[in-house]
Design goal:
The complex is a heterodimer of chains A (111) and B (114). Chain A has 111 residues and is an all-beta fold. Chain A is globular, with a radius of gyration of 13 Å. In chain A, strands 2, 4, 5, 9, 10 and 11 form a six-stranded mixed beta sheet that branches. Chain A is built from no helices and eleven strands. The termini of chain A are far apart. Classes of the chains: A mainly beta (111), B mainly beta (114). Chain A binds chain B through residues 2, 4, 6, 32, 34, 36, 41-46, 49, 89, 91, 93, 96-104, and chain B through 4, 33, 35, 40-45, 48, 55-56, 58, 90, 92, 97-108.
């Protein structure tokens, strides 16, 4: 049973525009959320995180928004660059420190 | 500093065989987690080790086991391989058990069972 879902397998965005990647979760006990970026033939790389006590966290071009009532997480990338093209995974931490990952969204930034 | 190192990068095994994968975490990291990545399933958590003790376990059969050594290096073993075990196996290390600063992943071991 997938507790963290990324319903869009892929997304294409023009360079310079905003990329919005979405993530939904089912378990209200999740207390920490992370986004990872993965290039082909490499392991995922930690990107940004947010605690459940916050609703926004910003790091340069990357902003993560958390809507706890909707159990929804999103990652905004502004402006998008071709080097951002990768697969993005969201992850949520549950009880016992176990992390649950989504299935990933493949982002393509078109020059 | 060196990242997380996983060996081997690629493996082909036959059904029924067993396999051992190795992971060397970032120096100083004491937590090592293992994940299985398959198309359509994302990353599925296998287990996490901290200070040579398994601290957490996902929903995988007992054929999947692991251990951690005193130098924090970890091995994962899969016995009686099945075709469905074909996947990318990722190891991730973290300074602490909480993973508050995220995990650093290795590049993975691609296992193919034929």
């Amino acid at each position: 049973d997938q507790q963290v879902k990324q319903n869009s397998p892929s997304l294409s965005v023009q360079e310079g525009r905003i990329s919005i990647l979405n993530c939904d979760y089912t378990n209200s006990m999740f207390d920490y959320f992370l986004w990872y970026k993965k290039y082909p033939a490499e392991g995922p790389t930690f990107l940004i995180s947010i605690s459940s006590i916050k609703d926004k966290n910003e790091d340069g071009r990357f902003t993560v928004f958390l809507n706890k009532s909707a159990k929804h997480l999103s990652l905004h990338i502004v402006p998008s660059q071709p080097g951002d093209s990768a697969v993005y995974f969201c992850a949520a931490r549950g009880t016992g420190n176990q992390f649950y990952f989504g299935t990933g969204t493949s982002l393509t930034v078109i020059p | 500093k060196a990242g997380v190192t996983q060996t081997p990068r690629y493996l082909i095994k036959t059904r029924g065989q067993q396999v051992t994968l190795s992971c060397s975490p970032i120096s100083g990291h004491r937590s090592v987690s293992w994940y299985q990545q398959t198309p359509g399933q994302g990353l599925q958590f296998l287990f996490e080790y901290f200070s040579e003790t398994q601290r957490n376990k996902g929903n995988f059969p007992g054929r999947f086991s692991g251990r951690q050594f005193s130098n924090s290096r970890s091995e994962m073993n899969v016995s009686t391989l099945e075709l469905g075990d074909s996947a990318l196996y990722l190891c991730a290390s973290s300074l602490t058990l909480q993973g508050a600063y995220g995990y650093t992943f290795g590049s993975g071991t691609r296992l193919t069972v034929v």
